[in-house]
Automatic annotation (TrEMBL):
A Pfam family annotated for this UniProt entry: Myotub-related
Sequence positions that bind substrate: 290-291, 354-360
Protein name: Myotubularin phosphatase domain-containing protein
UniProt xrefs under InterPro entries: Myotubularin, Myotubularin-like_Pase_dom, PH-GRAM_MTMR6-9, PH-like_dom_sf, Prot-tyrosine_phosphatase-like, Tyr_Pase_AS
An example Gene Ontology molecular-function term: phosphatidylinositol-3-phosphate phosphatase activity
Domain Myotubularin phosphatase positions: 137-539
Organism placement in taxonomy: Eukaryota, Fungi, Dikarya, Ascomycota, Saccharomycotina
Length: 579
């Protein structure tokens, strides 16, 4: 509480979705709370946890000045306001009758939002309600049980469970237990890891029991400009391809990046596979852009929505298409469609990676499994999928979500001094430096799941609200599931005993998040990558507001767009080793 300069302010005017309400602002240790008088009808309270806050602006005058002319409304120039943008696309503004009170609230919110240690977040104090205590989401994913469910015989089959990374010394960002070919000894495995970025060696994540095809994930090889090679890495991939006993089958090495990005990495000592060293397989590039492109794409959507506090109108709605977000989502579904058909129709093994193998690799691996395996389209299975391919395989949730926020996201425009202007310019530069590793990777994956669910609603046990609440809790820091960057950190922070799993929240409310029209069947889902829409519920808008200007079933297509069927046909005709 020592950070809080002011705990309560009366006569605050709240603006949200173009409407205004007068009430009282309360600042607590972990929440901003706006309350209405007892006589009010409808909404009585609005709660906002501090980690959800993405940007705060302090301005002189009312927030309404952004929509009207100050010369014709001089009364609006009194007092001050805070404009707050949240990560769940909630936009609100608070009008204060007094600038000093507004400044105190601004300073308090900044101190409470900007933390430098993850164990200071609310999750470490949160006490679950009774219905959540009946569940333990930390135990939902068990390595042996899940791969046995997939159809593997880990006792005597071609795959085995390795404990070589049990102390996380082999690969600090990988799980303690991995599935590797039985023909590969721990000695060969330990010598192979240095050839892959961050030591993220090829490890099994999914076995397709219908034809024995599998998804193996890794990071990029360290080939460099000299086209280095590793006999141990080549042996490992060779044994992976041999696990289904179909020696003449052409398998795929899948690089999720654009080819130019992969080639550029060679100058930095990394790169992509030299295909002549991996006989019997072919390569495909998925052309999925990096985290920086995706972050800027979503920022453009936020720019369109930025006046959602004082207005119901979108700011420059034509910028929605120019954001490129739908193109990125469509491209990911196109890649998913290609790989689903490669596995389901052709029985190809997939060796999948991007750069470090914890962003695009997690996205695509998860989407392919979601389409192939109906178990992952149940609530229970989706939990296992996220725990396996995101939490266990080291997606950097803390880093990508920006849980440890900086004061560079706070802007004080009420001070007009030259010093303040210089400070703001410096702050703007620091903001870009501090946020360069943040990116909506997991949110984009959920957006792709939303598209699949919209196209095949009866194939999913969970509903749209489940995905939306998952986005909320990605940033809320109320639960421990998304606070860490890898399994090793989870154990170091003792999250299983010090925090609650987010899955307890969802499983204890399963009926709320279930789709009543769900049909349990074993069919494969094929994405329609030409049918993508803005996830309007997530953005807090109507379908017509976000998608009314889109042609039905069409999005702006990339110039080099090619159907999945054509790509697969081309792959069949490629010479082995051709890139």
């Amino acid at each position: 509480m020592e950070y809080i300069k002011i705990t309560k302010v009366d006569d605050i005017l709240l603006f949200r979705r173009g409407t205004s309400l007068k009430g009282t602002l309360h600042l607590t240790t972990h929440h901003l709370i706006f309350t209405l008088p007892p006589t009010a009808t409808g909404m009585r309270e609005l709660w906002c946890c501090y980690p959800m806050i993405e940007r705060v602006e302090l301005n002189k005058g009312s927030a309404q000045l952004y929509m009207v002319d100050s010369e014709t409304h001089p009364d609006l120039c009194k007092g001050a306001c805070l404009r707050i943008r949240c990560r769940d696309f909630t936009f609100m503004a608070l009008d204060f009758p007094d600038l000093a009170q507004c400044q105190d609230a601004y300073d308090s919110i900044m101190k409470l939002t900007c933390i430098d240690e993850i164990d200071k977040v609310y999750a470490f104090l949160y006490s679950p309600i009774r219905i959540e205590t009946a569940f333990n989401g930390w135990k939902d994913y068990q390595v042996f049980d899940e791969f046995q469910r997939q159809g593997l015989d880990l006792d005597s089959g071609p795959w085995r469970l390795s404990n070589l990374n049990s102390d996380y010394r082999l690969c600090s960002s990988y799980p303690a237990q991995t599935i590797v070919p039985r023909a590969i000894s721990d000695t060969i495995l330990s010598h192979s890891v240095s050839f892959r970025s961050k030591n993220r060696f090829p490890a099994l994540t999914y076995y397709y029991k219908k034809n024995g095809a599998c998804i193996v994930r890794s990071s990029q090889p360290l080939t460099g400009i000299k086209q280095n090679r590793s006999l141990q890495d080549e042996k490992l991939l060779s044994e992976i391809f041999a696990t289904n006993g179909r020696q003449n089958l052409a398998n795929l090495i899948v690089d999720a990046r654009p080819i130019t990005n992969a080639m550029a990495q060679a100058a930095l000592g990394a790169g992509t596979e030299v295909m002549e060293n991996y006989p019997g397989c072919k390569k495909v590039f998925l052309n999925i852009e990096n985290i920086h492109i995706m972050r800027e794409s979503l920022n453009k959507i936020k720019e369109v929505l930025k006046n959602g506090d004082v207005s119901t109108q979108l700011y420059s709605p034509e910028l929605l298409i120019k954001s490129g977000w739908l193109n990125h989502v469509s491209n990911m579904l196109k890649a998913t469609d290609l790989l689903v058909k490669s596995m389901h129709l052709n029985g190809m093994h997939l060796i999948l990676h991007c750069s470090d193998g914890w962003d695009r690799t997690s996205q695509i691996a998860s989407l392919v499994q979601l389409c192939l395996d109906p178990y992952f389209r149940t609530l229970e299975g989706f939990v296992v999928l996220v725990e396996k391919d995101w939490c266990s395989f080291g997606h950097r949730f803390n880093e990508r979500s920006g849980h440890l926020q900086r004061d560079t996201k706070f802007y004080n425009y009420a001070q007009d001094t030259n010093f303040q202007k210089i400070k703001q310019l410096n702050q703007h530069f620091k903001h870009h430096q501090n946020t360069k590793l943040e990116s909506p990777v997991f949110q984009q994956f959920l957006d792709c799941v939303y598209q699949l669910m919209r196209q095949h609603p009866e194939k999913f046990e969970f509903n749209e609200r489940f995905l939306r609440r998952l986005v909320y809790h990605l940033y809320s820091c109320q639960y421990g599931t998304f606070l860490y960057d890898c399994e090793r950190e989870k154990k170091q922070l003792q999250l299983e005993t010090r925090t609650q799993s987010v899955w307890n929240y969802f499983k204890s409310r399963k009926q709320e998040f279930s789709f009543p029209g769900y049909h349990d069947d074993q069919e494969v889902v094929f994405p329609n990558y030409n049918d993508v829409k803005f996830w309007y519920q997530l953005f807090g808008k109507s379908n017509d507001e976000m998608n009314g200007f889109l042609s039905v079933g069409r999005v702006e297509k990339e110039k080099d767009a090619t159907s999945s069927a054509e790509k697969i046909d081309r792959l069949e005709k490629m010479e082995v080793g051709e890139e």
